[in-house]
Prior knowledge:
Blueprint (H helix, E strand, L loop, with lengths): L9 E2 L2 E7 L4 E6 L23 E7 L2 E5 L2 E6 L6 E2 L10 E6 L2 E6 L6 E3 L2 E2 L4 E3 L4 E4 L2 E9 L13
Parallel strand pairs: 6-7
Antiparallel strand pairs: 1-2, 2-3, 4-5, 4-14, 6-8, 8-9, 9-12, 10-11, 10-13, 13-14
Amino acid sequence: MIPGIATGTRFGPYKIVGWIGAGGMGEVYRARYIFCGDVRTSSAASLPAATGAVSCRIIIGDREVGLSQGPHILGRTTEVAIFVDDVGVSRHHARITVESGGAVLEDLGSKNGTILNGCRVAAPTALADGAFIVLGATVLKFRLFAARDRRKPLRSALR
């Protein structure tokens, strides 16, 4: 069992239905549910404090993709910035646009839609750190970090 994740917890279209052994391997089955709720857009005040610049990443399984400023298309063709190998994903499925203050997710008229934290994306929506994006049956995690001032050295974690 993983601390804080109970049986029955849902992640997008997935649900934890049981645990295997003492090592905590979760058994996950695909489910066809759509969860809805109030969508709240992030304000600039809720973004990490820095010089206004942010660093964004998308995590897909064991792959991590850095996102530079500008638009990034997610889809099932090799011509896109973020390739998602899933038959339920359109060739040009969604777009993440990174700006100095954060990032915005937009569905590009995909057949199966884009899900953000359990809700279908109907209009461009601000992304918050830790947001879960579902394209087809693939779950992606969005990460947002304050850009580090490169003039200052990193402090040692061992202090």
